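Fructose-1,6-bisphosphatase class 1
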Amino acid sequence: MYKKVLTLDEFTIQQLRLFPHATGELSALLRDIGLAAKRIYAEVSRAGIADILGATGDTNIQGEEVQQLDLFANNQLIAVLRHGMSCAGIASEEMEDMVAFDDAVNNNSKYVVMFDPLDGSSNIDINIPTGTIFGIYRRISSPGAPCILTDFLQPGYRQVAAGYVIYGPSAMLVYATRRGVNGFTLDPAIGEFCLSHPNMVCPENGSTYSINQGYFFQYTSAVQQYLAFCQQGAKKSVGYSQRYVGSMVADVHRTLLKGGIFLYPATAAKPKGKLRLMYECNPLAFILTVAGGKATNGAASILHLLPASLHEVTPVYMGSANMVSALQGFFSASG
Ligand code: AHG
Ligand code: MN
Ligand code: MN
Ligand code: MN
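Tokens:
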């Protein structure tokens, strides 16, 4: 018996029926992002064949070497969001300033989108999962051109929705609103994202911790003590394993599905952290929080940090609520 699985479009329409007064703009925005994701996945999954591996020769505002696929993904997202009618403008890891879609229709759109077009791009050439991360905010100033200060620099708890796409053995889009987190796997037979993981919940405990051990001696003593606790756990049959892909999307996706904790602390080289608040930490913190997990910068909830600039970075610890709470115990003990 063929099991009826809702496509992303059918799911968004089903959700719309629950809210007859909804304009459908947010649903259309999600469908636009889904379309861009399919185009990105098509290119990522044939990167070794298409001449699209390697760097562009440019560096972005973070001083990172921009990969050709970073740019391809960035352009796909801008194209569908500009063409659609639900987004007034975007901010991207790969663009120094925001991009306002300055036409009458888009200028009156309710939403702005911030995204990391391709996360984990250092892994592209070695065929390790990468992803796209996005956060959607309702504009404060509208109609008219969007404004960075009021429309983009909003704290993460004001996200209307957030999501990511992981380009792995399969492409999966995980999307959260306050009502819940749902996962859609791309079915290549019909070219549609299909609801494969309804109502995703982050287990309150897990058995993996995810961190770049290579920076151990650059971490604070509280972080070092927590890592020792995870490693000694094995003796007390707590049994933590270390898993680190080096693509935040992949490490957080595993954490959402199986439980665990992902840590990217400040280091001596990056005293404010490496990961970007607006288009990496906030969207993923929103998703994990809706799913019952926690996300902190060590002192405060990620979602309550007040952003001062588009590309600011933050230390980040997110995952199973009980594991993040245990880590916070090490921070408070260290004063
Ligand atoms: P991006 O590819 O978008 O620049 O992000 C890379 C980030 C993130 O995906 C990952 O968690 C982190 O860089 C890995 O950093 P290290 O190589 O320093 O561990
Ligand atoms: Mn980058
Ligand atoms: Mn990234
Ligand atoms: Mn990126």
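The first strand starts at residue 55 and ends at 59.
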